[in-house]
Amino acid sequence: MRRLAAPVGLALLGLVSVGAGCGVLQPVDPYQGERVSVDWAEPLYALEVFPYHPVEPAQPLYVRSAQTPAGGIVVVPAKDRVVRALDAVSGKTLWSFETKGPNVAKPVAEGDDLVIASTDGHVYRVSQRNGRASWVSEFPGGAGVLSAPAIGGGRVFVTSIDNRITALDYETGERQWERKRPHLTELTVSGQAGALLVKDLVVTGFSDGQLVAFMQADGVTAWSADLSGGGKDFVDVDSTPVLVGNLVIASCYKRGVFAVDVDTGNIAWVVKGEGYGTATVFEGQVFVPQALGSVIAIDGASGTVGWRAKLSGEIAGTPAASEHYLLVPGGESLVVLDKGTGRALSHFDDGHSFYATPELAYGTAYVLGGSGTIYALGVY
To answer: What count of other Cβ atoms lies within 10 Å of the Cβ of residue 339?
Structure first.
């Protein structure tokens, strides 16, 4: 099978039948001359008998290094408390690592190792080659982690659901500093923003509506931007910030999408609305999911809205972006949108659900379904 030479995602088109229990990719004009295959589908764990709408939100990570096979590995966290490394070409499990809680956060590769954060309140540094841990770090109170760690300057920055950000020493896992903000009310969104590293800052959001930039070295506050508008209920900034030029883009659940100047903390623009989640950035365009199954495209520099798309499913998760397409976890299925227009082109449905953001690498999309199966969707 001939592969595309760069991560351009799915050229979705043609009819693909993948056998009993797997999904069918519907044909969409005018692309009937191209095809997508399910290269492999690997069940990771068995669902309970008669499951009701199972949800699996964990995002895989593709890694190719001197420690992996030539085709790379896919590191897959999952809610069954196991992190697995699969051969990216065959889907064969190469090693597994067990945690004490479900795993949601996307792992992060650094050098020859991986940093894995779990809802069990631990952060693990493990080998890419065999999954053996070199250190385990525990948070105060054992607060769970939902978002990928950020690594830079010899530190691992991790946010946890108790409204805390912690800096760990990358070599030892020891805590260097931590900062915590109070919950203003019990009416918060169940989530926590991840961390963004930019210049000498680490930026994250909190449930009180604050987007805060800390100095990476010592946790001193560089600036704090109030996105709450003075409100207290559901003003959580629980979306992981992303960067466009000199602007940090983050969402306040009740008030909209904000762009904040990374040097000053001043708000540059805002797109009002409720229920926006973590955005994806591609070539200056910001693609933001919204509650109740919508996606919005925004010009990152100006805040101008390009298009809005309503999915047929009940949710829209953080999309993965390729040169031409957005792959959006839509609850009932993985939805494929035209990146330029927001037009729905196709979907992949295995009869359960898709809540996890796909990982795109070299023409393949790796996505974990609510069925407990990870799929490698290939392009040729």
So the answer is: 22
Which H helix or E strand runs over 261? Answer: strand 256-261
Residue 77, C-beta contacts closer than 8 angstroms, at least 6 positions apart: 58, 59, 60, 83, 103, 104, 105, 106, 107, 116, 118
Q: Which helix (H) or strand (E) holds 272?
A: strand 267-272
3-state secondary structure of 242: strand
Q: How confident is the model at residue 189 (pLDDT cuts 50, 70, 90)?
A: low
Q: How many Å apart are CA 124 and CA 128, to the nearest integer?
A: 12
The rounded distance, in Å, linking the Cα atoms of 36 and 8 is 13
pTM, full prediction? 0.88
Cα(367)–Cα(70) distance, integer angstroms: 21
> CA 271 to CA 163: how far, in whole Å?
25
The CA-atom distances, in angstroms, between 320 and each of 59, 202, 241, 316 are 11, 23, 15, 12
Give CA–CA dist 280/200, Å, rounded: 22
What is the b/e burial string over 312-324, where b = at least 16 CB atoms within 10 angstroms of the residue's CB?
ebebbbbbbbbeb
pLDDT of residue 233: 87
Cβ(129)–Cβ(113) below 8 Å: no
What is the model's pLDDT at position 31? Answer: 31
CA-closest candidate to residue 327, choices 284, 360, 290, 300: 360
pLDDT score, position 14: 27
Range 228-260 burial, b when 16+ CB lie within 10 A, else e: beeeeebbbbbbbbbbbeebbbbbbbbbbbbbb
The kind and range of the H/E element at 113 are: strand 113-117
Quick one: which H or E segment has residue 175? strand 175-180
Matching residue, tokens 């001939």: 2
* CA–CA dist 349, 95 (Å, integer): 28
Q: For the chain, how big is the Rg over CA atoms in Å?
A: 20
Give me the count of residues in the chain. Answer: 380
Q: Which residues pair with 276 in a beta bridge?
A: 290
SS3 378: strand
Between CA 3 and CA 367 the distance in angstroms is 18
